[in-house]
């Protein structure tokens, strides 16, 4: 990815206007009614958002990492669930761009870039989330194909998507386990059942499902990179890329909650003056805005490092940790400022409050981010 060009700034402006005009007015109503945003997702495809990290040579609209993060902030400011339609889709694209064979890039990237192919990542299972080496789904070689058996849990975009990244064990007895794990691009077909849409607290409308594989056939040429035993590295790399997008999603939710709160605080009168004139409310607003600004700086600093091609796993982890905790704290503070109205579906704050925990858990839980940050700190400050 390169520095932002005029074209990239134009995409960002277009997304901002799209969110203000088309998304914010309908988001809460559609979310409460459980309507899937087909038309909005198609508009996002027309804007090139399904190909944000895919090179132009494959039909994508590749943008630099700062623009990438800002686009996720804008979308999530409007509706976190809508950002979810492209969130893990872009992780799949990232893994194919970085590790796919030339044939895989040619077959999958153009469709992923236009949104004709839509999907996500099938990593988590009922018994393995943070501890991905504990997955039990297998993909066993049988001539020119692999046969997949097992279950995947929490798979976003699984019902309306058609193309996914699958992590499975090709050598279940390998020790350590990650050496026996491989990644595939899979397309829906016989043997793959979307068995359940999981009913969630928030992050609604974008579907999150349970999948079952029974003798599901994957052509051997869909093994990412053409080599077995690399899947764990591919998946970890994809999750690393996801950290910035999840951090940016957290910032978007926090920003929306803050803006609602500061608007309300200037209109709502108690004891003869707007609540924004009470110092305890002012302290809340000041803390909220400070955390939001700190989140933005952490995200953009990590994104700039990534633009320069420097290692930034610790910085992206810090950004993800801080921005998503900020989303959870600020959305709750916004609810307090709105009082009873914050708890009501007449205002969007209850949606931000229900959406925020997803970014704390998804993209690697914040407990995991702390472990990653600490590991890097101990490397950096090792006492010899
Ligand atoms: C709405 C939603 C959408 C999702 N979408 C996808 C998707 O598209 N694809 C996909 O593959 N997955 C998806 N996930 C799954 C998500 O990645 C996992 O929920 C997450 O990784 C945590 O795994 P888990 O739920 O199994 O929790 P667990 O791994 O069981 O963890 C439970 C708790 O223990 C903590 N913990 C675990 N290990 C440690 C440790 N070593 N030290 C300290 N604390 C620890 C965790 O941080 C957490 O607090 C989604 C989840 C949700 C809720």
Description:
By secondary structure, the chain is α+β, with helices and mostly antiparallel strands. The chain folds into three domains: 6-119, Butyryl-Coa Dehydrogenase, subunit A, domain 1; 120-228, Butyryl-CoA Dehydrogenase, subunit A, domain 2 (Beta Barrel); 233-379, Butyryl-CoA Dehydrogenase, subunit A, domain 3, CATH 1.20.140. Helix content is 53%, strand content 15%. The chain is built from ten helices and nine strands. α3 (65-78) runs antiparallel to α4 and α8 (313-338) packs antiparallel against α9. Flavin-adenine dinucleotide binds next to β1, β3, α9 and α10.
Total strand count, please? 9
Number of helices, where a helix is a run of at least 4 consecutive DSSP H or I residues: 10
Overall structural class, as computed from helix and strand content, comes to alpha+beta
Shape: globular
Number of domains: 3
CATH topology of the largest domain: Butyryl-CoA Dehydrogenase, subunit A, domain 3
Largest sheet: 4 strands, antiparallel
CATH architecture of the largest domain: Up-down Bundle
Q: How many angstroms does the end-to-end distance come to?
A: 37 Å
Which bin fits the share of residues in helices? 40-55%
Strand content: 5-15%
Task: Please tell me the overall pLDDT.
Answer: 96
Oligomer: single chain
Low-pLDDT regions? none
Any idea of the CATH class of the largest domain?
Mainly Alpha
**Ligand list:** flavin-adenine dinucleotide
Rg value: 21 Å
């Amino acid at each position: 990815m390169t520095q932002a060009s005029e074209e990239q700034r134009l995409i960002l402006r277009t997304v901002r206007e799209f969110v203000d005009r088309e998304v914010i007015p309908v988001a809460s109503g559609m979310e409460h009614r459980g309507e899937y945003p087909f038309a909005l997702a198609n508009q996002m495809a027309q804007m090139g958002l399904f190909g944000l990290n895919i090179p132009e040579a494959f039909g994508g609209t590749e943008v630099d990492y700062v623009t990438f993060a800002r686009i996720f902030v804008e979308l999530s400011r409007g509706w976190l669930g809508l950002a979810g339609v492209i969130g893990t889709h872009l992780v799949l694209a990232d893994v194919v761009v970085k590790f796919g064979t030339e044939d895989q890039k040619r077959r999958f990237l153009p469709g992923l870039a236009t949104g004709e192919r839509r999907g996500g990542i099938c990593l988590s299972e009922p018994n393995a989330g943070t501890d991905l080496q504990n997955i039990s789904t297998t993909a066993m070689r049988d001539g020119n194909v692999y046969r997949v058996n097992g279950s995947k849990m929490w798979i976003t975009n699984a019902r309306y998507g058609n193309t996914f990244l699958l992590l499975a064990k090709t050598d279940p007895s390998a020790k350590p386990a990650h050496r026996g794990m491989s990644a595939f691009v899979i397309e829906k077909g016989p043997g793959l059942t979307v068995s359940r849409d999981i009913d969630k607290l928030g992050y609604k409308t974008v579907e999150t499902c349970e999948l079952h594989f029974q003798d599901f056939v994957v052509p051997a040429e869909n093994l990412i990179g053409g080599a077995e035993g690399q899947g764990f590295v591919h998946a970890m790399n994809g999750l690393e890329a996801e950290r910035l997008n999840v951090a940016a999603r957290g910032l978007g939710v926090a920003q929306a909650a803050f803006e609602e709160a500061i608007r309300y605080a200037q209109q709502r009168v108690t004891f003869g003056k707007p609540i924004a004139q009470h110092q305890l409310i002012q302290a809340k607003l000041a803390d909220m805005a400070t955390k939001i600004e700190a989140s933005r700086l952490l995200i953009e600093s990590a994104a700039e490092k990534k633009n320069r091609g420097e290692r930034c796993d610790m910085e992206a982890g810090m950004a993800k940790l801080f921005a998503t905790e900020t989303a959870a704290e600020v959305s709750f503070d916004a609810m307090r400022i709105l009082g009873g109205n914050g708890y009501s579906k007449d205002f969007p704050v209850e949606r931000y409050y229900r959406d925020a925990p997803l970014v704390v858990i998804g993209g690697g839980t914040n407990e995991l981010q702390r472990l990653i940050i600490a590991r890097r700190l101990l490397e950096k400050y090792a006492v010899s």
